[in-house]
UniProtKB/TrEMBL annotation:
Keyword list, A-Z: Membrane, Transmembrane, Transmembrane helix
Native species: Crotalaria pallida (Smooth rattlebox)
PANTHER family: 3-OXO-5-ALPHA-STEROID 4-DEHYDROGENASE (PTHR32251), 3-OXO-5-ALPHA-STEROID 4-DEHYDROGENASE (DUF1295) (PTHR32251:SF23)
Lineage: Eukaryota, Viridiplantae, Streptophyta, Embryophyta, Tracheophyta
Gene Ontology cellular component list: membrane
Record carries keyword Cell cycle: no
Name of this chain's protein: Steroid 5-alpha reductase C-terminal domain-containing protein
InterPro entries reported for this sequence: UstE-like
Superkingdom of origin: Eukaryota
């Protein structure tokens, strides 16, 4: 028992150190760019060889390409290599909550996006930027808290169950297939979802208006709904684990609180958050930034299907969950379509 706890503690500390160090290549490179781009743009050949001058100039003119390059090498490649070494692709889960914070600060600091304008225009830019940054931090803190609470405050105790299922399906090919099945999609999702950050920090001549307020309300509502839904789910799982330890029957489904009105209120809250950011971009005349939220919603619909199939395969909850499906809205919280008892009697 003592040896097992000691090994778990060592692994936890090791994974925490790895997780804290792993983004440093991108951070240090970006800080070097911010420090040196001005001299490079002014053709200071005495300070920079032609290669570095060309590189900093390219980084200045291509903020979207630069962030994709950094993501590809620092997240896709480095996270993948670490996952292969550890035989566990756990790290992308906690970093899903961190990367958007890094992205919003990346866009807010990129010099090309700090466009000129009069003082009033900079006021619009400043306040909209600070609002979005603050909201992103609140969203991230909520999600990272939920992740570590669920994982019992352990770093890398286990990987996402969906990755484990995929690894079993791919077998010996998983070592290379994992790069395409896990990491490349994360780049599509996270860079796509964060496109509103790019828009907010590239448009500074649009006055704050009622649509900014609407976006704030949608984002905050999403965060609040997701928080309460995840907390109710956590309490439900904790109670069932205690019942399991006492060899008592488990409660088959969570059918109270927000979960009474929606089968996946946590997913609904998360979608509200991302679509609220889209409203910011739409208000600035760049509705095309919705593409990331749309792709994520479509992916989440597929994930919902997988989760519900998994629930129906568990004997102790299959019947109860089947009734739950027939009476309860999938995402959007709504009133029951019929009483479970009436449906059960009708099916009998």
């Amino acid at each position: 028992m003592g040896s097992g706890n000691a090994n778990s503690s060592v692994r936890n500390v090791k994974n925490a150190i790895i997780a804290c160090l792993v983004p440093l290549p991108s951070i240090l490179f970006y800080l070097s760019f911010l420090k040196n781009y001005d001299s490079a743009m002014n053709n200071n050949a005495t300070k920079f060889p032609s290669f570095w001058s060309t590189l900093w100039t390219w980084c200045y003119h291509h903020p979207l390409l630069l962030v994709n390059v950094l993501f590809f090498f620092n997240v896709n490649v480095l996270f993948w290599v670490i996952g292969l070494i550890q035989s566990s692709h756990w790290m992308i889960d906690p970093y899903w909550t961190v990367i958007p914070v890094m992205l919003v600060h990346y866009y807010s600091a990129h010099p090309l996006l700090l466009l000129g304008g009069d003082d009033d225009e900079h006021d619009y830019y400043f306040w909209r930027s600070r609002i979005v940054i603050l909201l992103t931090w609140v969203w991230s803190i909520r999600l990272i808290h939920n992740y570590f609470r669920r994982e019992k405050w352990q770093w890398g105790a286990k990987e996402d169950w969906r990755f484990t299922v995929l690894s079993q399906q791919y077998g010996k090919q998983w070592w290379w297939a994992s790069f395409f099945a896990i990491y490349l999609p994360q780049q599509v999702f996270l860079i796509g979802l964060s496109l509103p950050f790019y828009v907010v920090h590239s448009i500074n001549n649009h006055p704050l208006n009622v649509w900014d307020l609407v976006a704030i309300v949608i984002c905050v509502s999403g965060i609040i709904i997701a928080y309460f839904a995840d907390t109710q789910l956590y309490n439900f799982v904790t109670r069932n684990n205690k019942l399991k330890g006492l060899d008592e029957p488990l409660v088959p489904i969570l059918n109270s609180g927000l979960w009474y009105y929606s089968r996946h209120p946590n997913y609904f809250g998360e979608q509200l958050w991302w679509w609220g950011l889209v409203v910011f971009a739409w208000n600035l005349g760049h509705g095309w930034a919705f593409i990331g939220a749309l792709v994520n919603t479509m992916c989440l619909a597929y994930v919902t299907k997988l989760v519900e199939e998994r629930m129906l395969k568990q004997d102790y909850r299959a019947e109860a969950f089947s009734l739950y499906q027939k009476t309860t809205s999938m995402w959007v919280p709504w009133f029951k379509s019929s009483s479970p008892l009436r449906l059960k009697n009708k099916n009998a």
